Structure to design on (940 residues):
């Protein structure tokens, strides 16, 4: 009976098989896509979940209010922290259970290393002149600022330069008197004259006449400098003396701030592989201790203390000097040496008229490379800086609070209170940090420091044992990169066109402004044992004396990602630290990811920098699990409802046949087996075809294991066919024998006049309310699924967006979302069309009467269109409302204020569903042409 029914009703069987084929194949492929997308997401998260360290420990009150409110870590968290954690706290944290590596960083301060940048001006020389002076008028461009620097000079002569000497200095000068060479010493005696170039811009009036028997007064320069501001450009003005026909260069004096920090070499090597970055010398080790040299061995003639250190070879100071070059009109060349050897040499040179002959430019990094040749550095004074103060703007972005300009007294050093001679020009720029100077005790040797604070130590010298290149450090995933300020400055770029133009489309890099926004990372590293030699040698004690450690970066043992066990291990360590030291700031950084944020430096400068959002990986995993589960359920329900509608339509179309069988004595069980048997056979055939189709589509979509997943289509098709047919089969058993002669359409109890085609369409939908609601239900479920799915997608993206890892995950997970939306709407529209086709078949006699009484084919088609639009609007609007209710019940806050956007999208989905139904109405409209009024009315 079943096989005969399938053969005789091939059209109905094929339509039902097509429905099962589409539903089962789509469900299998879509769930496979969801699973693949989830696996890809989880794999991406696990691969990028761990950065250089898992837990960050900072001093009390190190977190800013913005960090606390946003759950983020500022990219420059280390640059403004100089102490706050004691050595005892560090040792106890290092010894805690579960701590694999505890790497401390103790920022000491910025040393100022003075050197020069050589600018080649050879092409501007006058080949005919015996003596000449070139003047360089430089302008420094660094970051967003431009600064006028001191004029620099080069004196060039064809006469040989000779050296005069005093008990403590050796000077070079031009030949001033012919025949004044002492043949026994091969040295010119310049008694009664002043040096040509040395201290040319200082007041020479107090200098004793140059004589081997009379030394210079010791404080001449100091007395001169006290009268000038350290920001005075003329203070750094120098004259270079050169002779011969070789290359001519001007030495522009520059000073580089070098941040000195103490580390644990062994822990640092385990954390980031510091040992592999050494380029020359060797790496500092825990065996390197401060040491003392006797006065006999010291180059300074006193007992000096030294600390070991490594220096970075990679310049981090950005800036470029561009200058115009002038050839000065010197008048009589023969008189020039005498003028330059006069106490008024400075005013004489500056008053000379110059003719511009060209321009030159040089990068400040060249001067830093010259400083790399030094092996020893003084710690007479160093500077520390405070953190950047942020505030929220009305638009939700961040803004930086500006600080007061630097005071000149900040640059006064020790001893004779002499100002630092070469203050970097950028320090006149905008200040975002408070700068503090730390003068040393200025003790001589290791004896007592009379007149200074009791118990203080002499300031040590830094002795380099090696150099390292941060570019050789192993890289970490950029998607989970936690701040690593010990080796790299934060990445800051322009956030708007004006700022990008001011930066020349380059990142904002650190400059030499100690109070600047972007600070330099440590470029000089020493050992933890050297901290006391530095902090105890300051004239005024500070926080660094008792609590020198600025931060501790911790790697937890046994952590492989953000799985449950790893999270438990990290949380256990973080909890133990919080319990032991409640005032310390503890951040769990495993699973974090950089999150770009816009920061307003001032009204005209806005930058983008990478803050670090904590817990991003865990939020992604939770969100993707929720979304995957919802997608699975929604697609399953939509497919099942579609097949249920198709099976019910099949049963409804066989009312007369089933009623006749009941009249012939068929039992309800036999009718149930008949209906389910047909569905099972159709499901088997559709499942077999679907398996082949799923395999082909899976291979085309690039799904892994497409063969194994395609085999799931057969059992899914059987399950869907059986489940969808249970209710229709049960309803078939409820049909009695009289159903064969009863009209399929419920009769109207009270006649109502119908005056338009649209009114008749509404009346027809109301006559079969159950069937209308069934058809609308499928479409409503599709629109509701779209609404909920859109809300979940927005919530998912809102949950993880804003970070680099979240953006990468969102980009990977979108295909399954779009497929789910499309399938839900298509199956809902197909179910609505199926109901319309069934209704048309059952009302064939009514439609024949209308044709017989004069209705045209166009009017009947218009009636079908109106019924389809009404059904689509009923299903679409009810689905949109149901979806919005479901979204609100899930939590409106989850959408971060996007509920209005979701509502608008739901209405668009309703319109899209209506358009789909209208487009698919061609099938029932074509069926109208097959209505034969005479045959149908005769049969009725």
């Amino acid at each position: 009976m079943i096989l005969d029914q399938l053969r005789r009703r091939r059209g109905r069987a094929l339509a039902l098989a097509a429905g099962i084929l589409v539903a089962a194949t789509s469900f299998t492929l879509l769930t496979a896509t969801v699973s693949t997308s989830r696996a890809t997401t989880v794999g991406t998260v696990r691969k990028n979940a761990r950065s250089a360290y898992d837990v960050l420990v900072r001093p009390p009150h190190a977190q800013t209010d913005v960090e606390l409110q946003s759950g983020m870590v500022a990219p420059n968290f280390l640059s403004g922290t100089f102490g706050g954690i004691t050595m005892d706290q560090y040792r106890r944290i290092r010894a805690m259970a579960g701590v694999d590596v505890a790497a401390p960083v103790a920022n000491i301060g910025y040393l100022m290393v003075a050197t020069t940048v050589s600018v080649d001006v050879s092409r501007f020389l006058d080949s005919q002149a015996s003596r000449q002076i070139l003047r360089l008028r430089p302008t420094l461009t660094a970051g967003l600022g431009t600064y006028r620097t001191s004029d620099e000079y080069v004196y060039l002569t064809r006469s040989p330069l000779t050296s005069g000497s005093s008990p403590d200095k050796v000077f070079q000068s031009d030949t001033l008197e012919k025949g004044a060479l002492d043949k026994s010493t091969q040295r010119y005696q310049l008694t009664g004259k002043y040096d040509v170039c040395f201290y040319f811009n200082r007041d020479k009036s107090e200098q004793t006449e140059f004589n081997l028997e009379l030394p210079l007064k010791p404080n001449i320069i100091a007395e001169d400098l006290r009268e000038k501001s350290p920001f005075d450009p003329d203070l750094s003005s120098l004259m270079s003396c050169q002779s011969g026909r070789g290359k001519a260069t001007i030495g522009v004096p520059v000073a580089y701030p070098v941040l000195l920090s103490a580390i644990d070499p062994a822990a640092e090597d385990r954390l980031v592989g510091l040992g592999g970055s050494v380029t020359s010398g060797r790496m500092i080790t825990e065996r390197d201790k401060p040491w003392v040299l006797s006065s006999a061995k010291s180059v300074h003639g006193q007992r000096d203390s030294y600390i070991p250190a490594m220096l970075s070879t990679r310049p981090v100071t950005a800036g470029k000097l561009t200058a115009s070059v002038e050839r000065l009109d010197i008048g009589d060349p023969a008189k020039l040496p005498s003028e330059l050897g006069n106490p008024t040499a400075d005013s004489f040179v500056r008053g000379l008229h110059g003719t511009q002959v060209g321009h030159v430019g040089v990068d400040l990094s060249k001067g830093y490379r010259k400083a790399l040749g030094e092996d020893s550095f003084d710690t007479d004074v160093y500077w520390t800086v405070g953190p950047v103060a942020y505030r929220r703007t009305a638009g939700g972005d961040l803004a930086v609070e500006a600080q007061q300009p630097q005071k000149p007294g900040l640059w006064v050093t020790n001893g004779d209170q002499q100002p630092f001679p070469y203050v970097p020009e950028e320090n006149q720029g905008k200040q975002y940090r408070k700068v503090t100077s730390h003068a040393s005790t200025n003790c001589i040797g290791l004896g007592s420091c009379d007149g200074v604070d009791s118990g203080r130590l002499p300031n040590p010298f830094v002795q380099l044992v090696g150099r390292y290149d941060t570019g050789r450090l192993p890289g970490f995933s950029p998607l989970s990169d936690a701040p690593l300020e010990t080796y790299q400055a934060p990445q800051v770029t322009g956030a708007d066109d004006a700022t990008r133009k001011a930066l020349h489309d380059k990142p904002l890099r650190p400059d030499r402004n100690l109070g600047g926004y972007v600070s330099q990372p440590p470029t000089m590293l020493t050992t933890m044992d050297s901290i006391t030699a530095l902090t105890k040698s300051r004239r005024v004690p500070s926080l660094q004396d008792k609590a020198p450690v600025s931060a501790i970066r911790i790697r937890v043992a046994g952590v492989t990602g953000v799985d449950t066990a790893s999270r438990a291990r990290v949380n256990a360590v973080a909890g133990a630290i919080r319990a032991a030291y409640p005032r310390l700031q503890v951040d769990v950084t495993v699973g974090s990811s950089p999150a770009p944020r816009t920061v307003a430096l001032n009204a005209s400068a806005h930058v983008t920098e990478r803050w670090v959002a904590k817990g991003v990986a865990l939020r992604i995993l939770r969100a993707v699990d929720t979304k995957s589960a919802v997608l699975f359920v929604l697609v399953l329900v939509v497919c099942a409802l579609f097949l249920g509608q198709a099976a019910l339509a099949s049963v409804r179309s066989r009312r007369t046949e089933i009623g006749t069988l009941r009249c012939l004595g068929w039992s309800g069980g036999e009718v149930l087996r008949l209906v389910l048997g047909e569905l099972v056979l159709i499901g088997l055939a559709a499942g077999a075809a679907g398996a082949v189709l799923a395999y082909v589509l899976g291979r085309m979509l690039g799904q892994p294991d497409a063969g194994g997943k395609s085999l799931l289509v057969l059992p899914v098709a059987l399950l869907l066919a059986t489940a969808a047919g249970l209710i229709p089969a049960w309803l078939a058993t409820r049909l009695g024998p009289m159903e064969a002669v009863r009209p399929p359409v419920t009769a109207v109890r009270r006649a109502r006049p119908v005056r338009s085609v649209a009114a008749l369409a509404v009346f027809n939908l109301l006559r079969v309310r159950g069937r209308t609601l069934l058809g609308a239900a499928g479409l409503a479920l599709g629109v509701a699924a779209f609404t909920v799915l859109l809300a979940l997608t927005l919530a998912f993206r809102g949950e993880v967006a804003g970070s680099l890892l979240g953006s990468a995950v969102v980009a990977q997970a979108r295909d399954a979302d779009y497929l789910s939306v499309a399938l839900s709407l298509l199956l809902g529209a197909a179910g609505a069309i199926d109901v319309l086709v069934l209704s048309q078949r059952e009302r064939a006699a009514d439609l024949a009467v209308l044709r017989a009484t004069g209705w045209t084919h166009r009017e009947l088609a218009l009636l079908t269109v109106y019924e389809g639009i009404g059904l689509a609007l009923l299903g679409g609007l009810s689905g949109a409302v149901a979806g919005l209710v479901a979204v609100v019940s899930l939590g409106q806050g989850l959408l971060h204020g996007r509920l209005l956007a979701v509502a608008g999208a739901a209405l668009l989905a309703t319109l899209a569903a209506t358009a789909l139904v209208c487009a698919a109405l061609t099938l029932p409209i074509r069926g109208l042409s097959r209505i034969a009024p005479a045959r149908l009315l005769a049969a009725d």
In short: Confidence is low (pLDDT under 50) at residues 164-192, 206-225. The longest strand covers residues 99-120.
